[in-house]
Amino acid sequence: MRILDTHLHLVYLDKFSYPWLDGAPALKQQWSVESYFAEAEKLGIETALHMEVDVAEQEMEDETRFVLGNLHPRIGGAIAAARPEHVDFPRHLERLAAMPGVKGIRRILHTQPDELSQGDLFAANLRRLAAHGLNFDLCVRADQLPIGRALVAKCPDVTFVMDHCGVPDVAGQGLDPWRDNIRRMAELPNVNAKISGVVAYAKPDWRVADLRPFVEHVIDSFGWDRVVWGSDHPVCTLTANLTRWVEATHQLIGGASEDEKASLLHRNAERIYRVGQ
After folding, report:
1. Is 67 exposed, middle or buried (CB count within 10 Å of its CB: 0-12, 13-18, 19+)?
2. Would you say 274 and 11 are in contact if contact means Cβ atoms under 8 Å apart?
3. In contact, 204 and 248? CB cutoff 8 Å
4. What stretches of the chain show up as alpha helix (H) in DSSP?
5. Measured between alpha carbons, how far is 202 from 222 in angstroms, rounded to an integer?
6. pTM for the whole structure
7. What is the pLDDT of residue 231?
8. CA–CA separation, 153 vs 86, rounded Å?
């Protein structure tokens, strides 16, 4: 079954600055689109959306233009970096919205102070996304899920995608209070969930059984029509590789119907991110 990867990071150290990579030496290397698709195509991944890689702020728009500039025919769009906490965000948004292929924006929150996303300006700026038909990818830690929910509730007309299953503590099997917070997040109809990232939060010797309670709870909470799949490549290589994560995904959803599998692996993403539009 074909797969649409909604969370591909590309790293081009010769073109952009990635300050955060100084703290992640295992990832501080070139991760090109050619090397990704050399593995991905064998796994049934036909299309990928590029997820911003938190480049230096002055390079954000350049990164988006680069990945959308005929970099590879299987790049189906991009989720661009942005700073909704800034007063000049509306002008930045207009420029992004004018770029064919931009499907949404992301502002990394799981490494930022909680108060960053709670100001009136942040929410007011996110509400501007609805008029442009753009999504917001919500990346918050498990302990930040309540403030993430508060942000979603302030923007009822904006489509959100919660990244990485809400960043649970897979290594420590930290199911609670994560489970309840996931249920509460799923109560809001304008938020979807991305099955991604869990291997990076697992122990290096993880098994599929370690991932199962987290993935299954997210799918049970959101339903098969509100989940998408992402590789989180190359971050997934911290404990696995792309092939192993795809194989684990097929094991995790092995009992689902073909229709449910198609919903997770490509159909929902095509609708939510408007791929092909």
Report:
1. buried
2. no
3. no
4. 33-40, 60-68, 89-97, 120-127, 129-132, 145-154, 178-186, 208-222, 242-252, 258-262, 268-272
5. 22
6. 0.97
7. 98
8. 21
Rg, the chain, Cα only: 17
Residue appearing with tokens 């969930």: 193
Taking CA atoms, 27 is separated from 11, 53, 97, 248, in Å, by 9, 12, 30, 22
Domain 3-272 - what CATH class? alpha beta
3-state helix, strand, coil in the chain (%, to 5): 50, 15, 35
Q: Whose structure tokens read 């700073």?
A: 83
Q: C-alpha angle with apex 266: 26 to 252, nearest 5 degrees?
A: 65
Give bridge partners of residue 136 from the DSSP assignment: 105, 160
CA distance 251 to 242: 14
Rounded CA-CA distance 262/269 in Å is 10
Confidence of residue 203 (pLDDT cuts 50, 70, 90): very high
Residue 257: φ, ψ to 5°? -75, 165
Q: Is the pLDDT of residue 208 over 80?
A: yes
CB of 207 closer than 8 Å to CB of 150 = no
How many beta carbons lie within 10 A of that of residue 187, not counting itself? 11
Q: The tokens of 25 are what? A: 């030496």
Q: Where are the domains of the chain?
A: 3-272
